[in-house]
Amino acid sequence: MKVALAYSGGLDTTVAIRWLQEKYGAEVYTVTVDVGQEEDFKEIEEKAYKSGAVKHYHIDARQKFAEEYVARAIKANALYEGEYPLSSALSRPLIAEEVAKIALREGCDAVAHGCTGKGNDQLRFDATFAATAPDLKILAPVREWNMNREDEIEYALKNGLPINPRKSRFSIDENLWGRSIEAAELEDPWTEPPNEAFKLVKPLEETPNTPEELVIGFTGGIPTSLNGENSTMLEIIGKLNKIGGQHGYGVIDHIEDRVIGLKSREVYEAPAALILIKTHMDLEKMILGRRHLSFKQQIDKTWAEMIYSGLWADPLRKALDAFIDESQKNVTGEVRIKLYKGTMRITGRRAEKAAYAKEIITYSRESLFDQKAGEGFSKLWSLETRLTTLSEK
Amino acid sequence: MKVALAYSGGLDTTVAIRWLQEKYGAEVYTVTVDVGQEEDFKEIEEKAYKSGAVKHYHIDARQKFAEEYVARAIKANALYEGEYPLSSALSRPLIAEEVAKIALREGCDAVAHGCTGKGNDQLRFDATFAATAPDLKILAPVREWNMNREDEIEYALKNGLPINPRKSRFSIDENLWGRSIEAAELEDPWTEPPNEAFKLVKPLEETPNTPEELVIGFTGGIPTSLNGENSTMLEIIGKLNKIGGQHGYGVIDHIEDRVIGLKSREVYEAPAALILIKTHMDLEKMILGRRHLSFKQQIDKTWAEMIYSGLWADPLRKALDAFIDESQKNVTGEVRIKLYKGTMRITGRRAEKAAYAKEIITYSRESLFDQKAGEGFSKLWSLETRLTTLSEK
Amino acid sequence: MKVALAYSGGLDTTVAIRWLQEKYGAEVYTVTVDVGQEEDFKEIEEKAYKSGAVKHYHIDARQKFAEEYVARAIKANALYEGEYPLSSALSRPLIAEEVAKIALREGCDAVAHGCTGKGNDQLRFDATFAATAPDLKILAPVREWNMNREDEIEYALKNGLPINPRKSRFSIDENLWGRSIEAAELEDPWTEPPNEAFKLVKPLEETPNTPEELVIGFTGGIPTSLNGENSTMLEIIGKLNKIGGQHGYGVIDHIEDRVIGLKSREVYEAPAALILIKTHMDLEKMILGRRHLSFKQQIDKTWAEMIYSGLWADPLRKALDAFIDESQKNVTGEVRIKLYKGTMRITGRRAEKAAYAKEIITYSRESLFDQKAGEGFSKLWSLETRLTTLSEK
Amino acid sequence: MKVALAYSGGLDTTVAIRWLQEKYGAEVYTVTVDVGQEEDFKEIEEKAYKSGAVKHYHIDARQKFAEEYVARAIKANALYEGEYPLSSALSRPLIAEEVAKIALREGCDAVAHGCTGKGNDQLRFDATFAATAPDLKILAPVREWNMNREDEIEYALKNGLPINPRKSRFSIDENLWGRSIEAAELEDPWTEPPNEAFKLVKPLEETPNTPEELVIGFTGGIPTSLNGENSTMLEIIGKLNKIGGQHGYGVIDHIEDRVIGLKSREVYEAPAALILIKTHMDLEKMILGRRHLSFKQQIDKTWAEMIYSGLWADPLRKALDAFIDESQKNVTGEVRIKLYKGTMRITGRRAEKAAYAKEIITYSRESLFDQKAGEGFSKLWSLETRLTTLSEK
Question: Where are the domains of chain B?
Fold first, then answer.
């Protein structure tokens, strides 16, 4: 049996290599996908081979991730439950797809992932695997085994697997769109996350004493410039993570609802994601009408819920994206922000094709607006309220 | 003809007193409703009489406003277009109702307001007037007259009306739930609001160098304590406006869609409103399930859109509130926040009847969760995705 | 071990009695709940004992079903995917609750149902069991066993269980709110359901040649009279099933999406359910405003989706019902229909507290409506359309 | 002044020609657009000239209407308030656009329509006029004049205008997508519409005694064949109106909410529209997944509400259509119906790319479904219900 395994280099997937060999006598092909996590990929490769992989693949998918996944998330203002920018969630279908492609190329019989049975990642891998390579079996050693972290460490030690002493007591997942921090004392929702939980965002007391102003440019809903200079999304995200984090901006701490019905306290740092989504939302308001904005909120919410719950591959997601792409055609312009000690304030925005019409809105004499229209409008606007409340009497 | 006029003491309504006399030969009853604006109400009374009012009423509605209007807004997490806590919008139906009650008591033929024909306030007054006193005529001098600010000043000077040199070049509306700032250079959405626009929120560079921690307690979705001490909503709001503002927190700056189809750049300061809504949202996540939270977002959004567009009196609003009241039964608990130089971070939350279940979610050995359920769940969760994508091939 | 089993008398649950004994050495308490199915309950009791039950319970829940479940469905216009009136779905939480109550009374260790693992009923039983008797184990023999109908018959014959030669080749579920027909040739969605599939609805060619007119009266959203005569819901439903069916009305045939992601061709007959829901929808339009009706559609849709997917016990359902109850306060009036050869036409409706205002709407001279308000309304109604389309140019 | 007027040949617009001359000294260009109404267009032209038009245009837009407007309505399952297939509403933006194009070509200063100020049509004309020819003035004589039908007749008689004795006491609007019937005794919602109100749909007692079976084929969501024979949409609609009407199918009678807040009793006959929308809805269920169908309901509802309320030209409508177009890619297949004495029953459907999977759903031995997945799914599906209800205790 030949198996392609999504390999992160961490405990779960390292243990999985050996387990797949033991249980299925499998030849394991490990696939590591670079979506912007800071890792020693050489070391990961070595660990894979030491643990028994027959072949290791390293795939640099950073640009693809930015342009085909993150760009869609920005246009959809994607914040699950109003908070989480989907950093891990967005990367899973891409990773799964890359693994499935290797599996097909190598003639594997199965694809595998290291997700547990109580999280969301299993949904994301399983759905994309099934949609991309429907004829391959899906294996999920950790879930099948029903193991927890402590059991895994025991197994690794017993089998001489190359696991590192953990860098931190937290459970971390990271890519260019954000970093998630779970477990240890964070499992108590009343406990404040300690400074050492964070890597991108500086403690507020160590941030600069001078505010920093930035201008972010969008074209068709996608970030294309920073401070007037055209850049790739990859560069813009990299810079905003750095600058935002330096100023202490980008921490998220909330109670999150997993698809399987459990609540979990989640802490994230995502300076670039928050800056880009919030400036994008602001810019949209210059261009789209009231009804359009209101309806798009439902599209956006559904988009975020779908990605969160692993349904990237579903035809509904594509239909949502068709709506979004059409709505973004004119979302071109600039937004100016000010960063200072954890605060991000939007201080100005401008757009070529703005529906904002200063000459009508103005309070001064040049206003083109005939107020008498207001009378008729107001009368009929609440006519049904009058008729229904009257009829109650 | 006898007319009851909602009187703020400002230019629009002062001019309106005279105009109602001139045009309709009306006896004007002025009604000023205290919803927490900082004003010299003695001076307002004097202005009313100087401008020709036959009788002036002053009504202290602060507690009613907090307990019957603001409380509903908190339970509904009410932020119009994701940003505006509805400070002015919420107060209008209450003011209109008080004016209509006076009108009925004094045997008036009409009620009147000083709103223009291009804003939202006309909708709020007209709808509530019509629902509360359906037999009275509604007069709206400024709208009927089609005047702008400059015309009004001319008229006031010509008629010797007691108008003040404006305290600020901005157009301000204020109550205990927030303060809105419009006009002048803010009409250019690219211009940053200057420090002098703000009254409640301190410039960031003048804020304390030490963070301040607060614990806000809720009972049934309504704030009932601060730092462990039980308080009225009025007290809590007052304190949070003060403390939040001191730490530079509470500024909102966005492009807002008026009901009539115009976009307008709106700047608000609302420290208490933002703190209470955001902590309430956070607490809800400890208690309500995923589907409940997701659906309530639509209820909340519709609630905010209704209040914004003047439909407080509509039976639909009452049905939304019936949903909300039922959903808030168990929203009891505490949220801890940290304020510092414009930043508000939620750092912890706890609730008696939390659905958060640490003993199941935990990564360590005591977890009660059987991961095998995850396999079946994941398989069926995306079964339709598999069948629909397969059928496409 | 003592187990309370929801017992229908059919193949699945008869086999389950024996299986629970065999596998768990269980004492089985069978519980049959009468929700309006036409059955020989004496015979069912005998079958239970013959199959090994230690005690059999028969519970007449017809009135409770009508007044606490069906009444809610009518107020919610509940049609899953626009078609299915939830007849089986609505009964499951009631049956499960009754079984759980017996289980608690008898001191059982577990509750059990005979649902398969590919349908929706398992979700409905499992959720209600868990919410009503959270400490009891849930057993589901058919699902656990992974058996199909043919396997079960074999097992029954081998074990001498009292199974009837099936009355029909179809799989039937029935109660006062409707009858569902599945399986056999209906599994091919292109095949027309044959006449023998139906019991309540007559073949069109055998229906009377004269139309029949009925007047249905509602009070607060609930049916309370038929042709001017006050009746209980139970009576009204009974009569409408009879009269509607006689006239060939009440067949539903559609492709239905099960929660688990499978599509299934479902055929129902539900004359009373369709008549009551459609007349109720019609009456609501006389009373509720446009925005209210539009929003309630989403409430209703979500209500139907929740009940279909087994979430009756969820707090969200109760919050939806709080909205609905508030919205139904004034839904009182009468609707007249005409039944003829499969057709049901609504021909008139009237309501005490109607928002319908003939004196305003009329085209003739007495109209009270000032058309000039229309001009202002129309201008501002599409102002944002103008500004957004203009800005595109 | 030169004005292009949308001219139907009816009372409102005939009176408008003269009024525009009288009041504005206008040269009036009349434009009649054929969208499938049965009229003597020669006679209409003569009436236009007799009433004073300087030039008359007749435009055959039937194909455009079917392919660019009706086709979108079918894909969107467009039924306003669940009932009205938007026949008149859909035609208005097309008519307005044609009039605006003539106006631009003839160098007119204004466009004009004959709509009243209490209906929806004014919104539809005004919005499309403004979006298509933003620089032209919009005139609406009937609305401006605030006249009712009786006043108009008086004016016509006094001015010797060529008005016909009305063919019927009802107010009729007609095109290929349906026929609306208003006014006279129908204004009492309790009165049954008399037989003479209808033209397309035969009285039930006069319909054939033999059912008729039809098979409708769709390609990408659009009807493309009838009984296996490829046809244009125009032909299919024509045939279905005829056959459906002959069998007494296609009557709609409901209370409708106009945008301006008035309720109105509306009667329609629309055999083709109802047949095509209902068969299209049925076919979609063979192809789209559960989540997709559920979400599309909201898209469809919003689409219908937008078209009803005159917002065809809005960018939001285009974004909704982008969603719909993407969702319809695979909606290809056939639906079989049976028509008989007012009843339309769907009796079968089939599709090439169906997600319906008989081999999994079947109850018999060949089923591929592993029921054990159901257990895990069911457990986690309602886990949040369990945790939230438990926490309440």
Answer: 2-168, 173-351, 358-392
